[in-house]
Design brief:
mainly alpha; 82% helix; 12 helices; 292 residues; globular
């Protein structure tokens, strides 16, 4: 890990290269190299915070900070009129976290540990919230197809109400998991994981978590910007860029953190990061973008 942190030098190098007007290809490579150590640092900080707060809060913090950069990028894309790109990136982010991140975590953890356990209550709540997500995202589309209207005025009104309900549902899920029923969301792994002693103070862990997430946001924005320019010159579609490339690049922090936690047999934290990130995108990020 110490050798990985040596790659942090690429963070200022990328910023300098961007300011000096380097080519998009150079910025892409430098930003990709910078995200690797930052993601490792974010994973370490997440584990330290989880040592104080538990896997539920730790996973929520990681997902929130990881999705913040994606929200900023989506808002900027909306202001630029790239609606199809934003819709594709939201869909790709949800699928990427559920299939790629969670799948890679289960594979990596399973290769290293014979048996892994996770909290069934956490998985059950995640599945229920995702069902609500599907219903919420489908309702406006079904309404629009059944009530054709060139102005789409009623569909927009329905979308706003659905967005509000989804945000409320997400807020209530946080109250349920971290408030009224906090005890049922304890880690489902071995006892040793419950007794893991953090090596950092809580203040240091939170500070590193926030700084690493902010740096990842800056690097991700540069990386995504360079990627869009590169694929545009190759004639790739906006939908492909949003559905495949941007989610993989933008969610690099969640990818590495979840896999790292799974390899350390912290499956509750890995599931919390992967599923929690998808739920947050669907129940919070997407509705917020609708309102914006």
């Amino acid at each position: 890990m110490r050798y990985l942190y040596a790659l942090l030098i690429f963070v200022p190098v990328t910023i300098v290269a961007k300011m000096m007007g380097a080519s998009e290809t150079v910025i892409f490579l430098l930003a990709a190299a910078a995200i690797l150590p930052l993601s490792g640092l974010l994973g370490t900080a997440t584990e330290e915070v989880a040592g104080y707060t538990g896997s539920t809060v730790g996973g929520l913090l990681n997902a929130t900070l990881g999705n913040f950069a994606e929200l900023v990028i989506a808002i900027l894309a909306l202001r630029a009129g790239l609606v199809d790109l934003v819709k594709a990136s939201i869909t790709g982010s949800i699928l990427g976290n559920l299939l790629l991140v969670l799948g890679a975590s289960l594979l990596a953890g399973g290769l290293k540990h014979k048996t892994q356990r996770f909290n069934a209550n956490l998985a059950g709540m995640s599945a229920s919230l995702l069902v609500i997500t599907v219903i919420g995202l489908v309702v406006p589309a079904v309404f629009d197809s059944l009530h054709p209207d060139p102005t789409h005025a009623k569909t927009r009104l329905i979308s706003v109400w659905v967005a509000g309900v989804l945000i409320l549902g997400y807020a209530l899920s946080l109250v349920y998991s971290m408030g009224t029923h906090k005890a049922v969301f304890g880690e489902g792994g071995d006892v040793a994981h419950h007794e893991t002693v953090p090596h950092w103070s809580l203040k240091k862990a939170v500070t590193v978590l926030v700084v690493a997430a902010a740096a990842i946001g800056v690097m991700s924005e540069m990386l995504v910007g360079a990627t869009e320019h590169a694929v545009a010159s190759l004639g790739m579609s906006e939908i492909f860029v949003g559905l495949v490339l941007i989610p993989i690049i933008g969610n690099a922090a969640e990818h590495s953190s979840a896999v790292l936690m799974a390899m350390k047999n912290r499956m509750d934290l890995a599931v919390g990061i992967a599923a929690g990130s998808s739920i947050q995108v669907a129940l919070l990020i997407a509705p917020v973008l609708v309102l914006i």
